């Protein structure tokens, strides 16, 4: 796909654990006149472009294949890219990222399917360019939150990359997982693991533009924190960003918050009422140290 933009595209990678508030941040950033928020676009791998059998819902409430934005993007990506991306996803293992040779293939999700780093980057290059062409915006917010994927993508020097690390109090994430799935220690593992992986990515990519913000500060003073996030991206705040629910957006994945019709921002601190003493003891024992590092 030919690049038609005069300046290189900027990819803003939102990184964080599950339930860290990334959907809200994606919606607010996506309401900027120069930005398009595409949400958890890593899920594009779940899509069978030619024959969608399991279609997901876009923020516009249409299914991906019925949404005019995504069907346009998919068409512009070209057949080769569509075929190469369908059903494939980069492996998540630390081992593969840290020790694999660049020329060796990565394993995909399906057994026997493998993908080269170059193919992975070229596929995303085609996808991001198609998104820029359809949206007519040259700043793309990708809140897939997968830090290793973002680290791999940041090797593509055809783009500017900005990392936003969104941290949320581990007890809040613990409660969100517990409420949704009934998980205990597994939630702690996911929260701690996600944040430690992000710290590793920040260490490995010291020259990258990184901004670290806390969910609680963001919700308390959204305008102030959004301004801080915009600084490394190189754009200024627009008041219209706070009316994020009024703009038509097309996040491909993310939580239910995407479908909100309200511009209200409310702090979710339900964990304070719902976590038991036993839960809090387990948390302190296994993850309290990391929460302290993040000044909770
Ligand atoms: Zn849509």
Major β-sheet strand ordering: 2-5-1-6-7
Q: Estimate percent helicity.
A: 40-55%
Q: What's the tally of helices?
A: 12
Number of domains: 1
List the helices and strands and how they pair.
Blueprint: E1 10-15, H1 22-30, E2 35-39, H2 68-77, H3 79-85, H4 94-99, E3 106-107, E4 114-115, H5 117-135, E5 139-145, H6 147-153, E6 160-167, H7 170-181, H8 185-204, E7 209-214, H9 215-220, H10 222-233, H11 271-274, H12 277-293
Parallel strand pairs: 1-5, 1-6, 2-5, 6-7
Antiparallel strand pairs: 3-4
Helix pairs in contact: 2-5, 3-5, 7-8, 8-12
Give an overview of the whole structure.
It is a single chain. This protein has 296 residues and is an alpha/beta fold. The chain has one domain: Rossmann fold (3-Layer(aba) Sandwich). It has a five-stranded parallel β-sheet with strand order 2-5-1-6-7, with helices on both faces. Strands 3-4 form a two-stranded antiparallel sheet. α7 packs across α8. The longest helix is centred in the middle third of the chain and has 20 residues. The chain is globular. 39% of the residues are buried. About 7% of the residues have low confidence.
What key phrases describe this protein's structure?
globular, 296 residues, alpha/beta, two-stranded antiparallel sheet, 12 helices, binds zinc ion
Quick description:
This protein is an alpha/beta fold and 296 residues long. It has helices at residues 22-30, 68-77, 79-85, 94-99, 117-135, 147-153, 170-181, 185-204, 215-220, 222-233, 271-274, 277-293, and strands at residues 10-15, 35-39, 106-107, 114-115, 139-145, 160-167, 209-214.
